[in-house]
Amino acid sequence: MEYNYYKNKKILIVDDEPDLLELVSSTLKEDGYLNVDIASTVKEARKKLKDNPPDAAVLDVMLPDGNGFDLCNEIMKVRDIPILFLTARGEAEDRFQGLGMGADDYITKPFFPKELTLRLSAVLRRCYKEDDPMVLIESGEIDFTKAIVIKEGEEIPLTAKECAILDILYRNAGRIVTIDTLCQAVWGDNYFGYESALMAHIRRIREKIEMNPSSPVTLLTVKGLGYRLIMKEGR
């Protein structure tokens, strides 16, 4: 079962570039987001906010009839939702202003579409907790809230990076997650060269979640591509 409890959240993207709006919205939908709305002006965004209040917003700073900072202030007065800024302006002052207003993240153009989905997913998971954090696997359970594996009655702690790797694998349970995607999720944009470190973490994770790490049945390698997490049947 795909770990998508947050993907039914309403996402509003506000930007005045039609091509970027199309790219971002299509990328989010391809990634499993079920309710993505778009606006190209402050006026249009205000109407969307009133008619179909979102659970999160991605705002461009420079808009034809205003700016994302003012729009962020308007949103925060009526709704407590996570906000990400998306802008071509990379000056430190803009970044500090956006984050200082209470925004949850700040992404500078140009960017990889996958970077936005990963950052948005991280913000949504942090702000909207899942009701059932217990994950059933063949050897036992994973508890993400406590960062532990429960196997044969024993609680085995997970490190932060092990938990992050398992988290993205669980959110895509049953599907192949590429090596690049896992490295970027754990080490950020400067992830090149971390393939060996990822393999070491995968090996340690298997020692914790598999009954027989040398013959894994839960965390599988897809040669040349990445890894796949198999949930216990009935989950």
Automatic annotation (TrEMBL):
Statement: the UniProt record of this protein carries the keyword Transcription regulation: yes
Q: Which UniProt keywords apply?
A: DNA-binding, Phosphoprotein, Transcription, Transcription regulation
Q: Name one Pfam family in it.
A: Response_reg
GO cellular component terms attached to this protein's record: cytosol; protein-DNA complex
- SUPFAM superfamilies associated with the record: CheY-like
DNA-binding region residue numbers: 132-231
CDD domains documented for this protein: REC_OmpR, trans_reg_C
Record keyword Transcription present = yes
- Which positions fall inside the OmpR/PhoB-type domain? 132-231
Residues with the modification 4-aspartylphosphate, per the entry, are: 60
Look up the domain of life of the source.
Answer: Bacteria
GO MF: phosphorelay response regulator activity; transcription cis-regulatory region binding
Q: What is this protein called?
A: Stage 0 sporulation protein A homolog
Organism expressing this protein natively: Clostridium drakei
Q: Write the lineage as a comma-separated list.
A: Bacteria, Bacillati, Bacillota, Clostridia, Eubacteriales
